[in-house]
Amino acid sequence: MIKEIRLINWKSHEDTIIKFGKGTNLIVGIMGSGKSSIMDGISFGLFGTFPQLESRRVVISDLFRYDSQELIIELEIEWENESYKIIRKVSKNEKRHVSDALLYKNLKLVEKGNKSVTQYVEGLLKIDYGLFTRAIYSEQNNIDYFLSVNPKKRKEEFDSLLDLDKFDRAVSNLTTIINRIRNKRKSFESVFDETKLESLKKERNISNEKIIDIRKQLEEIKTKIKETKNEFEKKNNEFVGYKKIEKMDKELNESKKEIKIRLEEYQKRVIGKIIDEEDVQIKKHEINGLEEEIKKINENILKLDEIKNVKNRELIVYNEKKRRKEYLESEIKKLRKEDLDKVKVDKKRLEEELANLMGFLLGSEREKNEINDALQKLGNRINECPVCSSVLDEQKKERIINEKKSKLEKIEEEMRNVKKKIEEIKKELESKIREISSIEKIEIRKSQMEKELLEYENIPKDFGSLEKEIEEYDERKRKLSMDREEKSELRNKLKYIILEIEEIVSINKKILENKKNFDEILEKIKKLEFDEGKMKNIEKEIQSITISIEKNYGEMKLFEKEEEYLTRILQNVDREIKQKTEIKTKIMNQMEKEENLLLFKKILEDVQISLRDQLIESINNAMNEIWLMFYPYGDYKKLRIRVNENDYLFEVYKNDWKTMESIVSGGERACASLTLRVALATVLTPGLSWLILDEPTHNLDREAIELMSETLQTKVPEIISQAIVITHEEALLGANFSRSYRLSRNKEKYEPTQIEVL
Q: What does pTM read for this prediction?
């Protein structure tokens, strides 16, 4: 059940709240008072749109009330004993519209965002926007639409209402697709030739047989080439063996010559040289002793450097302290002693003088004001003295005025001089204040420097001995360095002598090794037994085998080219066969698709007819139950919809079935229209039991309106849990409506909608 809707800045509504109850709710108002806006607001609250917005008869900007920047729809519904509140907001933001939605369940937020809230509502109520507008929401003046529209339009609209138009669109789309497939199949058939395909297959078989024969001959040639290659490999290995022996023979003879030359050279280098191994050991012992002494000298030098670095750092610290002390003593001498008390006395004198002048200036200002007041009174043509109140003649009055003016000028001149003097004193006073501040800062600085100077009282007077110590360290280091150089030179000479001795020992070893190698090479040359004539005979045999291999390769190349040519022909034939086979397959596929789609089209048409029959039967059953409740007379006992190929016919039964348009009155027409609407709501949305009617009295006479009012108040609530009706027709009002409201609005003054509870 819809419990309440609140419209803020929605079309003509500034802030409207309407509560709904079970049964039929009535909203009455003149044209433009904002009635339809309420219905649109309900649809917008539930689904974020309504028919006029969906069909673009209005745009979002049309929904805002005048210059408002934000509109809000708040819709409360009760469903399955749970309370839900939907809030949708739209705001203007830099020529754009920003919208949002919130959904609360029992005051707890359960969903947000326009799309998410709409999906939640659709899942909750088990209907979507399309079904809502077809079965529940009857737009303005649309209740008897199906009874007055022409047959063709009625067929289209009623199919759309029952959601059967989707089948027509599907069948139409299928017909288009079937025609496309048929045309595509015919285009494939126009380029396909079955005879050509068979001819190509025969050509492929002939080419395959030729290729098989060529490949057989190629295998025979390859076998022959393989055997010849094996023979070639055998002879070539034998020849390579002889070439290696030849190479080894040459290399051994070359090595023999080189070794002989080296032996002669080594023997020349050691002639007359005798090696004393004991002398070598003595010299090595001397070298070790010298290196130990050099090591100690280096350690002493490092120690001297460390001591010297310490002394140098001490000397640097001393010099820095000495420089700082001299700087402080110099700065203290530069600071001059000022008489701070004298300057403070001068400052106090200037302050007193300034105060006196300011007092004089205030007194002069008062006197000046008194003279001006007196002159003003004298200028107002009074004939008595402003001081003593004595009677004044014109001559005496003129004399007094001149005296006052003269005195005023004198006072103003004195005041200017005093002000000038005040400015001079102020400048001098500021100078004295700055002078006092400067003297105080100097005194503070002097005190700080004297305090710092005390830290340097204990600096030694003479650091000459430290400089002498550093010079002595330098001299000791110089002597140690000279001693190290002498010992290093002696060590290097001993090392050179040892190297010469070791070189002689090494040469003697090499002489022995080369003599041994020389003997080994002579033995190897004897064992080679190289035969140059036999090697040349093998070379000739290899040349003959090579010619035979080349001949076989030539034959193989010819067969391979022929095979390649036939293979290309076969590939082209296969490609053409494949293309034609693919076209044939496509033709078969298109035929199969066409047959399947024709079958599917027939099934859709049958399903549409079956579904239409079932829906119409359900609607007719519902209408006959409702008709007996809504129609109070007994002349027309039944009401039905009959479907033919081109129309939905509305018929009533009175001894026989007759079409409704030709025989029924306005009241009967109203009952039939309302019966149809209620039947649609109960059949298409059985779980919801809602009905929304906008201006249902359109084209109805007074009798029909009265009958509809009675039906809406007493009969509709027996079938529909909640109905909402809006109308401009005051005659529709009655006492048995669940809730009744009257809406009004002064459109000329752009006033918002006003609501009255009836």
A: 0.49
pLDDT at 685 over 90: no
Comparing CA positions, the residue from 494, 557, 679 lying closest to residue 222 is 557
Q: What are phi and psi of 676, to 5 degrees?
A: -60, -45
In 10 A of CB 95, how many CB atoms? 6
- Identify any residues that bridge with 23 across adjacent strands, giving them in sequence order: 722
Spatial separation of the C-alpha atoms in residues 727 and 119, rounded to whole Å: 31
Q: What pairing do the DSSP bridges indicate for beta strands 23-29 and 657-659?
A: unpaired
**How far apart, in whole angstroms, are the C-alpha atoms of residue 285 and residue 272?**
26
148, 669 contact by CB (below 8 A): no
Closest by CA position to 484, among listed 295, 302, 344: 295
The answer to whether 92 touches 102, Cβ cutoff 8 Å, is no
Q: What residues contact residue 713 under an 8 Å CB cut-off, 6+ apart?
A: 24, 734, 735, 736, 737
Helix (H) or strand (E) holding 744: strand 739-744
Sequence-distant (≥ 6) Cβ neighbours of residue 691 within 8 angstroms: 136, 138, 677, 678, 681, 716, 720, 722, 723, 724
User: What is the model's pLDDT at position 208?
Assistant: 83
| Cα atoms found within 13 Å of the Cα of residue 178, Cβ hemisphere only | 15
The enclosing H or E element of 87 equals: strand 82-93
Task: Please provide residue 276's backbone torsions phi and psi, each rounded to the nearest 5 degrees.
Answer: -105, 100
| Interatomic CA distance for residues 88 and 103, integer angstroms | 9
Nearest Cα neighbor of 28 from 550, 724, 726, 569 is 726
Residues in Cβ contact with 92 at an 8 Å cutoff, skipping those fewer than 6 apart: 64, 69, 70, 98
Q: For residue 46, what are its two tokens? A: 């539930």
Most confident of 72-76, 247-251, 608-612, 678-682: 72-76
Ramachandran angles phi, psi of 650, nearest 5°: -95, 120
User: CA distances (Å), 186 to each of 171, 192, 631, in order?
Assistant: 22, 10, 61
Q: Which of 67, 49, 71 has its CA nearest to residue 118?
A: 49
Number of separate helices (H) and strands (E) present in the chain: 17, 15
Which amino acid is it at 40?
A: D
Instruction: Dump the DSSP string for 477-539.
Output: HHHHHHHHHHHHHHHHHHHHHHHHHHHHHHHHHHHHHHHHHHHHHHHHHHHH---HHHHHHHH
* Residue 449, pLDDT above cutoff 80: no
Q: What is the token pair recorded at 727?
A: 């109308």
- Residue 460: φ, ψ to 5°: -55, 145
Alpha helices in 380-393 (DSSP H): none
More confident residue, 606 or 194: 606
pLDDT in tens, 325-337: 666 666 656 555 5
How far apart CA 623 and CA 636 sit, in angstroms, is 13
User: Is the CB of residue 332 less than 8 Å from the CB of residue 446?
Assistant: yes
- Quickly count: other Cβ atoms within 10 Å of residue 103's Cβ: 22
Contact 42, 692 (CB under 8 A): yes
Residue 110 pLDDT level (bands cut at 50, 70, 90): very high
Element (H, E) at 643: strand 638-643
Residue 672's nearest CA partner among 698, 723, 642, 636 is: 636
One-letter amino acid identity for 164?
Answer: L
Residue 511: per-residue pLDDT = 63
Neighbour count for residue 159 (Cβ, 10 Å): 18
DSSP state letter for 350 = H
26 CB-side CA count, 13 A: 27
Rounded to the nearest 10 degrees, the angle between the axes of helix 532-630 and helix 194-270 is: 140
Residue 142 tokens read as 């649309």
Rounded to whole angstroms, how far apart are CA atoms 201 and 437? 121
In angstroms, what is the C-alpha Rg of the chain?
64
pLDDT at 462 over 60: no
